[in-house]
Write a structure and sequence with these properties.
192 residues; 3-stranded antiparallel β-sheet
Length: 192
């Protein structure tokens, strides 16, 4: 219960911090950082020159082969033919938004890992056995012991193998299903 309240408080504080970062981050400006804008030119192979991808931080109006492809791999008279083959695209992104999303994602993953560690390490120590469930577990263990004792075991084999336990559980389940069918059909006959 106490951990659940702590988890709620942590999640609320993470969301509040992320919201504040989004609100307080500077609005989009004409002069963005170099990571936010770029011109990308993809030039295919031309004559004896292999294909290449060129990236450069230029404005949208300067996003063409002449401004981005440096150094020019072809001599002066082939520049125009080479640039006609190149495909240039202006790309814009918000690194601030990407950073905020990554921080939120890592915070959620961290909170889940902490919660898992709590469940694995601390919860068994804190949780006390229920007075109601303990007799049920003891009864199941007694049934297991009885079914294993009743089942014939070959000489020299261990009586507590996993396969034998599964078979015993399967037999108990089949008996329970049969008893349930019998009581349902008996009730159905009584009502008819």
């Amino acid at each position: 219960m106490m951990f659940a309240q702590c988890t709620q408080k942590c999640a609320t504080s993470v969301l509040l911090i992320a919201l504040l970062c989004c609100i307080l981050s500077p609005p989009a400006q004409a002069s963005k950082s170099s990571e936010d804008i770029r011109c990308k030119c993809i030039c295919p192979p031309y004559r004896n020159i292999s294909g290449h991808i060129y990236n450069k931080n230029v404005s949208q109006k300067d996003c063409n082969c002449l401004h981005v492809v440096e150094p020019m791999p072809v001599p002066g008279n082939d520049v125009e033919a080479y640039c006609l083959l190149c495909e240039c695209k202006y790309e814009e992104r918000s690194t601030t938004t990407i950073k905020v999303i990554i921080i939120i994602y890592l915070s959620v993953v961290g909170a889940l890992l902490l919660y898992m560690a709590f469940l694995v390490l601390v919860d068994p120590l804190i949780r006390k056995p229920d007075a109601y469930t303990q007799p049920l577990h003891n009864e199941e263990e007694n049934e297991d012991a009885r079914s294993l004792a009743a089942a014939p075991t070959p000489s020299g084999a261990r009586a507590n193998t996993v396969l034998e336990r599964v078979e015993g559980a399967q037999q108990r389940w089949k008996r329970q299903v049969q008893e349930q069918r019998k009581t349902v059909f008996d009730r159905h006959k009584m009502l008819s």
